[in-house]
Amino acid sequence: MDKFMENPWFVRIISMLLAILLFVTANDYFGGKNSGTTPNDMENANTDTITNVPVEVYYDSENLVVTGIPQTVDVKVEGQRRFVEAAKRQRDFTVYVDLSDFEIGKHRVQFLYKDISDKLKVTIEPSYADISLQEKVSKEFGVEAEFNRSILAEGFEAERPDVDPKTVRITGAKDVIDKISYVKATIDASGLISDTIKQYAKVTVLDRELNKLDVIVEPESVLVTIPVTNPRKNVPVKINTTGTPPDDIHIKTISTVTPEVVIFGRTEILKDVDELEVTVDVSDIREDTELEVPLKYPLGVNKITPDKIKVKILTEKKQEEKTLKDIKIENKGLSSDLNMEIVSPVNGTVSLKVTGEKDNLEKALDSDFHVLLNLSGLSAGDHEVDLVVEGLKDVQWELSEKKAKIRLTEKENV
């Protein structure tokens, strides 16, 4: 028995049996139904979709342009969970289209992938793309600036925009370049604008139906300057009156030291405004007065400089008049050796129209006035002499005749 146990083959057989027993025991422990952990759960089949996976395109980009390939695709992966989870987490695979050997024209191409575990089943959605491979063409186009004029504040208007640079270089497929109808740089401004806009704007390329075209623009943005102004115009001020002054008051003049003001607004509004009117109420004016009157804004005018004017009102007491008749003409300075005969006016009397304030006028009597002929230094003969009035100082008067014709004769010696 000792010899049998010392035999090398016996030892080898026993070792192999022990190894088999150990393997079976370990498998039952870690993989059996009653195990506390289940690593095989990681090996169960699983499906997931990786979205927005970028598409790489291999082609002669210096001379050709490709259109019709989406920027991203969705990738559906199926397989053991650990491989699915790793692919979704790492995203280190590539989806591509290889057009290296394609000729110019339209083609249907399949999306391919690489650098993903071969233990996964991969489905790309969509699987194909209808593409157009064209000759690359570059051409310069002028850029037109545009913006929404409704954002201008009331009374403001925009002048012709300036674009820098004025032209851009557009590169794309020849058939796309031929479709270009508009190259625009649109200002995106918020709020009401009352000052010049200066802003970089992205260049947009459109066809006749205003569809955006897939092209390369250099530079992508341009500097757009849109001068915003508030047009102005000088207009006169017209003063109107309302109301009736007191009975004994006469308004002599109404004037202003600001006969002209500046109005601001859009050109189409200003062209229809020729003057501004202000209305002054004179109902309670009894003496010289200076008022500050606000100007009314016409529709569409956003500013007036100045927006108030001073109005000066000059008054006087209302004048009445009456006529004094048959006032005898008197003389003074007649030489003692001469006789005087009044040829005209007839009867040697005149009428006197007297004007003044009511109170003063009521006091005026015929006896308060003297109509005189100054005959000093006159010799015999016919003369025409100015009539002079002496009378009350608080009234004015006007003679019916301003001159008198007289005849001077020498007295006979007795």
Automatic annotation (TrEMBL):
Pfam families: YbbR. InterPro entries: c-di-AMP_regulator, YbbR. This is YbbR domain-containing protein. It comes from Lederbergia wuyishanensis.
